Amino acid sequence: MQVIIRPTTESAVALTAKLITDAVNENPGIVLGLATGRTMEAVYADIVKAYKNKEVDFSACKSFNLDEYIGLAGDDKNSYRYYMNYHLFDKINIKKQNTYLPNGLAADEKEESARYEWAIKAAGGVDIQLLGIGEDGHIGFNEPLSSLASRTRAKALTPETYQQNSPLFDNPEDMPKRAFTMGVGTILDAKRVIMLVTGAKKADIVAKAVEGPVTSMISASALQLHRNAIVIVDEAAAAKLQGKEYYNWIFDNEPEWEAYRNI
Predict the structure, then answer these.
(1) Which of 67, 112, 127, 234 is an active site residue?
(2) 159: which residues sit within 8 A by CB, 6+ positions away?
(3) Known catalytic residue: 67?
(4) Which of 91, 189, 213, 214 has the smallest set of CB atoms within 10 Å of its CB?
(5) Cα separation of 37 and 131, whole Å?
(6) Domain ranges of the chain
């Protein structure tokens, strides 16, 4: 795992977006794993800006999203399909038929979960997976005690997740209490993982996920086991990290980061 600390939220977001657009340029047929949430909106805005500046072409890409609420149609403004269309897919030249999310209205949850796993495998696997982190350390909707070997499945959300996300609904009581999510094991299968975390509210959980024990109580801690995981944080989110001096040394001296130091 590599930890990159940037001085501001804006620079952390910009670095994340640049890594993704550079990956697309290096491999035009790349399979992207995408995330939702407020942290990602700025990332997608930067990616859209790069596309409009003709710096990147998404026409040959495929994408798979981490999760989707159970019970919401894709045209529901609170669904993650709607979110992705609004913030990214409708603003770049990716083909909609190459963008995949679980079907929130699927009649058979086990069948839909298996179908999604098969679709990822058929696409050759995820090349680069974008992640955020919940305040309890979850990635996707892999809530505490999720198996670190779990695969895509239907999952009950915790009361904490419900409380954090329900204000995003016009009527908070309309928020579903269950969702499809890629499993921790599914996420770890990605060839490369980038987790972006910003803000002081996430400082405690970032330190636990990055420097604490690997535990199913904090599903993001499983990234410590990944062969190519990058955690990008701003100064506020990095406040509780013990290894900050070393992480900065790596970024300032490893050749792979030379082109990104001025972002």
Answers:
(1) 67
(2) none
(3) yes
(4) 213
(5) 10
(6) 2-260
